[in-house]
Amino acid sequence: MTSLWTVGLGVSTFGNVGLSLIIGGVYNGLLSGANIVGATIFLPMATAICELLFVAISREAYCRAAWPNRCGGTGKIPGDQLYIPVTASVACNHAVSECMHLAAVLAGVAKDGTFVWVGVALSTLLTNILLRLSWFRFFLFQIARGLCGTSLARGLFGPSTWVKLHEEMKVFVGYFRFVPVVALVIARAVMYGMKPFHDPQTPAFNFATGCAILGFLCTEVLEDLIVVNELLPEAPVLPEMLRDPTSEMHPRALQAAERRHGHASGDFMSVVCDTEKQVFHKSIAYCRDDTTWGRLRRKLGQVGRLVPAPVLYGLREWPFGLHFTIIGIFCNLMLGMMSAFLGSGYLRGLHATPCPPARLLQSWFLESVPLAC
To answer: Residue 255 pairs with which residues in a beta bridge?
Structure first.
């Protein structure tokens, strides 16, 4: 089972990198074919689906291969998996998708110098807000419940601690991708000087690319402000979307449970001899939400604000050094994605034009020295 957990981590991370490269290549192919509307819709939707897919793979790997062994007492999975592997896998999956998204957009703008990125930025902002406020999950659950039944819909689109952890990671991880981009602009300015925007060695590639960097940073900040401060309402969590509170420590359990008084049945002796079964029952713990959006969610079917499951409190802050290690990985991912879509030579100002598609594909597997493009 240890090997299955390791394989799951590898597939969820490296598989995401491979599929993300393909998505970015398709996006730039749509742009080169003048299919601007298709590219604008395709990139944010494909990125979101890809990220959700590989986060789900890491969740299933943990739930099936790691968590049962830890809780079953076999000791086959060494170490504390929640401390670093689980949180790092979720963070890396989000970082890969975010890096690919920004790298693909900047590559397209660097090639054509137009402001197509504005439409992509707005569609991405709308898509991410609906995702992070769980409205997509809510509507997909309603559709799946009507087509396939509540049980399957709950398994596919029901909230869980893994979903909550994923949403929390989105608040922090997205900003690190801008560090290597800004560093690259500064390095080109130091190396070649502040050349005009029409020059191939200008720091920000061209005027539109410079605007795109600032624009996407602003939309990232705006997105977090809307979600964190709940300037728009979060989707309701219906009772049908929650699993029965059999184990609130299970990684799929979002809510905490509490024991409530029930209605005793039978005679006095049966109640005395079977108190736990007859008088108490386990129920989902709620607290009252009197905010404006809370009242709206109650009208849509949510009973009250959920009390987070205890398993979420098992997470601790990473070691100080690990923060910089993870940030370094994210920065290298961003530079690698930009090289994959533009070419290492063009990225560093050694060539005047980006690599052609055939040469780019070759450079994904074998880079020539000196850099061909």
So the answer is: 308
Q: Which amino acid is at 112?
A: D
Within 13 A of 319's CA, how many CA atoms are on the CB side?
4
pTM of the predicted protein model: 0.83
In this prediction, residue 192 carries a pLDDT of 86
Q: How many CB atoms lie within 10 A of CB 13?
A: 18
Q: What is the largest CA-CA distance in the chain?
A: 91
Cα–Cα distance measured from residue 196 to residue 33, given in angstroms and rounded to the nearest whole number:
28
The secondary structure of the chain, three-state, reads CHHHHHHHHHHHHHHHHHHHHHHHHHHHHHHHCCCHHHHHHHHHHHHHHHHHHHHHHHHHHHHHHHHHHHHHCCCCCCCCCCCCHHHHHHHHHHHHHHHHHHHHHHHHHHHHCCCCHHHHHHHHHHHHHHHHCCHHHHHHHHHHHHHHCHHHHHHHHCCCHHHHHHHHHHHHHCCCCHHHHHHHHHHHHHHHCCCCCCCCCCCCCCHHHHHHHHHHHHHHHHHHHHHHCCCCCCCCCCHHHCCCCCCCCCCCCCECEEEEECCCCCCHHHHHHCHHHHHEEEEECEECCCCHHHHHHHHCCCCCEECECHHHHHCCCCCHHHHHHHHHHHHHHHHHHHHHHHCHHHHCCCCCCCCCHHHHHHHCCCCCCCCCC
The answer to whether 117 touches 219, Cβ cutoff 8 Å, is: no
User: What pLDDT does 251 receive?
Assistant: 64
Asked whether the CA dihedral 209, 210, 216, 219 is positive or negative, the reply is: negative
Return d(Cα 334, Cα 8) in angstroms, integer: 23
304-331 core/surface letters (b: 16 or more CB in 10 A; e: else): bbbbbbebbeeeeeeeeeeeeebeebbb
The angle formed by the CA atoms of residues 288, 293 and 295, to the nearest 5 degrees, is: 50
Cα–Cα distances in Å, from 199 out to 193, 327, 349? 11, 32, 10
B/e letters for 248-262, b = 16+ CB within 10 Å, e = fewer, are bebbbbbbbbeeeee
pLDDT digits over 144-163, tens only? 888 888 888 887 787 777 78
Residue 281 pLDDT > 80:
no
Q: How far apart are CA 20 and CA 97, in angstroms?
A: 7
